[in-house]
Design a protein that fits this description.
Structural class: alpha/beta
CATH superfamily of the largest domain: Medium-chain alcohol dehydrogenases, catalytic domain
Number of helices: 11
Oligomer: single chain
Number of strands: 15
Number of domains: 2
Shape: globular
Radius of gyration: 20 Å
Largest sheet: 7 strands, mixed
Distance between the termini: 19 Å
Order of helices and strands: EEEHEEHEEHHEHEHEHEHEHEHEHE
Length: 338
């Protein structure tokens, strides 16, 4: 096989280096994917900055991958060369441990694989992925525009459809950024009374254009009280990266309400008495497995959900990563390989 090109992190805290290396043959149960586009996600910082103990370097980040199957390894069924393929955060599962057999493959006891963290990801022209981690991609989805759906889209869609809300219920999307701008679209199309919450009024027009029925400026008074006056939230999808902001909004849950935390903030205080009195809950939500990725892509295609992206050439990986980390991108950043 010819060589592949990759943008690698040489060590924790290092800047990207362009390297040429031989393309690996897929092993048993694996697929070789020719990468056409890869999203640049904030979680890539875990690899770039070395926030996860035990990462082996050099490492190729990237877990919002869309491409085609270039080769099929032994003992792989359901895939052929040329099939469109997507790879997200989930890096694969064994399929036979207790958790896998009970439908919790994301917490597989045997394989703790994360694309772009424990194994090489999509900042490259090719990657090898465990077949259990690969999602089928609809033929007419734009590969570059849709790449962020493999993480940002998947995470918000999966949290929303598992939050316990029914059509007509009040659902809050907290934060209008890379996750939140997709969350608003999904919530509206799932039939929820969609309320967008963000600091300031500068994103109100955008939030409403994406489908929000109502908008709340979290700087204008007590955001939790405002939500209570609206009847209390059946669900809050917390996409922000501020512990103070999460603490301020959790009181806005209504009876049986659930705050789905998908923004990583570490710890934040929660009034347990308030939770008890409303039978409410705060719950973390994992992005999803390959089947969830397929559901996200299919729903997005059918309902016109799209990511707002800034596109960079593959060779501009460092600039793309820096742009994402600056917080100024509107709203996702994508590397285009070709």
């Amino acid at each position: 096989m010819p060589n592949m090109t990759a943008m690698v992190v040489p060590h924790a805290g290092g800047r990207f280096e362009r390297v040429e290396r031989p393309i690996s043959e897929p092993g048993r149960g694996e697929l070789l994917v020719e990468v056409h586009a890869c999203g640049v996600c904030h979680s890539d910082a875990l690899t770039v900055e070395g926030h996860v103990p035990g990462i082996q370097y050099p490492r190729i980040p990237g877990h919002e991958v869309i491409g085609i199957v270039a080769a099929v390894g032994d003992n792989v069924r359901g895939w052929r060369q040329g099939d469109r393929a997507g790879v997200g955060w989930f890096g694969g599962s064994c399929g036979h441990c207790t958790r896998c057999r009970r439908g919790d493959a994301f917490a597989c006891e045997t394989i703790q694989a994360v694309t772009g963290v424990t194994r090489d990801g999509g900042y490259a022209t090719h990657l090898v992925a465990d077949a259990s981690a690969v999602a089928h991609v609809p033929a007419d989805l734009n590969e570059v525009e849709s790449a962020p759906l493999l993480c940002a889209g998947l995470t918000t869609f999966n949290a929303l459809r598992n939050c316990g809300a029914s059509p007509g219920d009040l659902v809050v999307v907290h934060g209008i950024g890379g996750l939140g701008h997709l969350g608003i679209q999904f919530a509206r199309r799932l039939g929820f009374r969609t309320v967008a919450v963000n600091r300031g009024r500068d994103k109100e027009e955008l939030a409403r254009s994406l489908g929000a029925h109502d908008y709340v400026d979290s700087q204008e008074g007590d955001v939790a009280q405002t939500l209570q006056k609206m009847g209390g939230a059946r669900a809050i999808i917390a996409t922000v990266t501020s512990a103070d902001a999460m603490e301020a909004i959790v009181g806005g849950l209504g009876p049986n309400g659930v705050m789905m935390v998908i923004g990583a903030v570490g710890t934040f205080p929660v009034d347990t008495l308030g939770l008890l009195g409303k039978r409410a809950a705060v719950k973390g939500w994992y992005s999803g497995v390959a089947a969830d990725s397929e559901d996200t892509l299919a729903f997005s295609q059918l309902n016109g959900v799209g990511s707002m992206n800034e596109i960079f050439r593959f060779e501009e990986a460092q600039a793309a990563y820096d742009r994402m980390m600056s917080g100024k991108a509107r709203f996702r950043v994508v590397l285009k390989m070709r």
